[in-house]
Write a structure and sequence with these properties.
heterodimer, A: mainly beta, seven-stranded mixed sheet, four-stranded antiparallel sheet, B: mainly beta, about 50% strand
Chain lengths: ~110, ~110
């Protein structure tokens, strides 16, 4: 059973460009979470999605950031008009939706904004 | 709302010594508690989890943690450190189908 897959692993963008991060959950998992890890900090929750629905986006910045988890295909985290402060590691986690909420993490996408 | 406090951003031990990483949580409802390990430039790997069954939880790589409700703690221990244990360790709390709330992490350094 393949783990959570994220691509690309590394992404370099110039200020003002768009960044698109992809996450394929583990097989059979219908819950996806996105977290951001700034340098030398812990992980901060961004958004929680189920298929075609955003359940909790309380950690998402109000502007430039969006996420989706379509019926078919991977979950996408999109950052428009990136700024240097968006440079971070972005981790996706998936869960089967059992009550103990064990989440399985992908290897992350490291975004560098020049 | 839940929160996690990890005391000590860095912990140094000698190989073979006891490892103790501290985690205190705050939660208004019975929590689920997790310890994750992160090696450099990698994702997070689950070490162990507490889900209201046994209060002493055994995980991978010889780690274990004890849930103490009276102290709101979930400290991580390992009797004998190995060089390969050097990594960043994160404690996290959640309630049901919700986000994980992480502590700020503790970097474990192991010297020969």
């Amino acid at each position: 059973n393949a783990g959570v897959m994220q691509n690309p692993r590394h992404l370099v963008r110039r200020r003002g460009q768009e960044a698109r991060l992809r996450c394929s959950p583990m097989k059979g998992h219908s819950h996806v979470y996105w977290y951001r890890q700034l340098p030398e900090e812990g992980l901060k929750f961004m958004v929680y999605l189920q298929k075609e629905n955003i359940i909790d986006e309380s950690g998402m910045p109000k502007e430039r950031f969006s996420a989706e988890f379509p019926k078919e295909g991977p979950s996408i985290l999109r950052i428009q008009q990136v700024v240097r402060g968006d440079s971070a590691a972005y981790f996706c986690a998936s869960s089967p939706g059992t009550n103990n909420n064990e989440q399985f993490f992908g290897p992350g996408t490291r975004l560098t904004v020049l | 709302a839940q929160s996690v406090t990890q005391l000590g951003s860095h912990v140094s031990v000698s190989e073979g010594a006891l490892v103790l990483l501290r985690c205190n949580y705050s939660s208004s409802v019975p929590p689920y508690l997790f310890w994750y390990v992160q090696y450099p430039n990698q994702g997070l790997q689950l070490l162990l989890k507490y889900t209201s069954a046994a209060t002493l939880v055994k995980g991978i790589n010889g780690f274990e943690a004890e849930f103490k409700k009276s102290e709101t703690s979930f400290h991580l221990t390992k009797p004998s450190a190995h060089m390969s244990d050097a990594a960043e360790y994160f404690c996290a709390v959640s309630t049901g189908f919700q986000k994980l709330v992480f502590g700020t992490g503790t970097r474990l350094l192991v010297s020969p």
